[in-house]
Write a structure and sequence with these properties.
Elements lengths: L16 H4 L7 H18 L7 H11 L11 H14 L1 E6 L2 E6 H16 L6 E3 L2 E3 L1
Antiparallel strand pairs: 1-2, 3-4
Length: 134
């Protein structure tokens, strides 16, 4: 029989997050954005992170039209990505080291460079302060 009595302050130890989280360098909010972006990739392409996923989702947010995605993206997930990006002031990019957080100014420079390389296929992306606006 257990020595712990009902109502006693028996603490359950917190699990070691490193053993559960494949990307412990991301904050919870950053990880939430990564998860939503990955979910879009899974829904659209049956891939955890399709090449240029971050740019494809950004383009849909900037244009304000989920039907511009290939295939069309879930509007609820796109709205959530936009909301999270505004809350955390940045975006998630995929690198050789996995997902990385990019502060908004850095991300916008990356988008401009991506577009300058001939990858735009859409109007310029704009932001207002730290908020994303089409």
């Amino acid at each position: 029989m257990s020595d712990v009595k009902p109502g006693a302050d028996a603490l359950i130890p917190e699990p070691d997050s490193a053993s559960f989280e494949p990307y412990p360098h991301l904050t919870d909010a950053q990880h939430d954005l990564f998860d939503r972006m990955s979910e879009i990739s899974e829904d659209c392409f049956c891939a955890g992170w399709i090449h240029d996923n971050e740019y494809s989702i950004w383009r849909v947010i900037a244009l304000g039209d989920t039907s511009t995605g290939y295939p069309p993206m879930n509007p609820r997930l796109v709205r959530r990505c936009k909301q999270l990006a505004n809350e955390i002031g940045g975006w998630i990019q995929w690198t050789v080291d996995g997902p990385q957080f990019a502060p908004m100014a850095h991300w916008l420079a990356m988008v401009a460079q991506h577009n300058d390389a001939g990858n735009a296929g859409s109007p310029a992306f704009k932001t207002t302060g730290t908020s994303i606006a089409p």
